[in-house]
Amino acid sequence: MSIIGLEFCDAGLQVARETESGPEVIDLGGGETGWPAVACLDGDTFRYGSEAEGMWFTHPRAVSHLFLEKLSHEGSELTGKNGAALSFSQLAFYFLRDYAKRIGARSGPSEKIVLAVPGRFLRDNSTEEQTIGLLLGMASELKLPLVRIIDMGCAALGGAAARELPRGSPVLHVDVHLHAAEIAVYRQETQLVRRHYHHVPQTGYAPILRHLKNAMGNRFLRHTAFDIHEDRRLEQAFYQQTKDFLLGPGRLEKEFLYQINTGRRSYQMPVTRAQLAADMQGFDQTLVTHVTSVAHEQGLSPARCVVSLTDRAARLEGLEAKLRSAGFNRILRLRPGAAAMGAAALGNDWPLVSDLSDVPVEASVPLTLASAHELPVEANLVRPSSLDGRPAPSHVIVDGIGRPIGENGLLIGTRHTHSQVDVSLPESFDAVGDYAVRVSRDGSRIRFELPAGGTALAPVDLVAGDRLCLIGAGQATEILLASCPASVNGRSSA
Fold this sequence. Notes:
The chain has 494 residues and is an alpha+beta fold. 27% of the residues lie in helices and 31% in strands.
């Protein structure tokens, strides 16, 4: 029997289970981006997920991908045997039933299930009453041992990622689903709580991939004089290659090769990430504009808040760079399935319920739960005997290696840290697991920001000669602060 966290995202469902070493994502197909909420009625047979997505362009009238976006009793584009339209809620039920069987086949019976749902499901009382009521009805019909329904961003930030959130900092959380993007503001009060939700339509993966397919298709036509839209099967293959380039293994390559094979010949076209970024810039700019607007509306300074990007959002080419250009320099990248893992971990502390109608719905997490797996790291700031006349530091030194403190500060952490660190702690310190320290700059003031799950430090302005001593899991290391002249004997010190 296991504790399951289910990330109910239409762009790709993810599932995680709690283990002795912490939550782990279970691969049920669909790769790192998960199992897409797509259904295809092929004759009398339903197909789901990646298999149904593979028929999106070859049999467009037989495919539905809106049933989670429009979860309701409203009729969908698919019809049943009697010729009546199948409702979106019916399709969602069939899809969830199939996915629950996949979970059971992979991990066995579940003791508890925590369902992490999109923020739009909880955007207002009327929407919540309808969507949550439908989900509880499905869970009852499928006999799922549901113990909580939780806001997806809250689950993602309330798991292991909470360790990397600077204490007290507001969080702008950005997620990208199949048809829309979501931006939410979370505050670290007595709880990690969602204080604002913002919906950005037409910025999900469906419109993005359709736009990229057409843009790349036009480029392919100019390059090869072959139109991929002449044959639906070739259009489907071109769509899949575009998805691989943006989200799959192709995203790791500087150059990607499109290849279409017909009965007579093969057509190829190389494209670069710069071309992909150019095609993406409209979507990226729309998201950045909305993030900036939300920050302004909520009274948040870009330099002082944390922007957390789900793995789905972080994969959008150029988005992080545009956010940094807009002044959002404190960016946290979450792991694939972060909400599923967070939900599974939080399920440890939530009891079973006898009646599914009593399942609580959460848009906050007690900080005691968010940091339940507290990091065994002790942090002590050691100051020079005299602070008089000491300049602000210009460099940090870790394990004998110096690194300048840039305008955006820098992040120091272990190799297990979710975000991309600027400076790695010594390899021996990896035994503590996830751990990161941020050196932040606000004008001439430089400070340490420690993760929420560990030792607290007073917010003091750092000077050259300060040392941060870290002790954890039998390991110890120091972060040294130094002031280095711009040049030594005419040579740059950096």
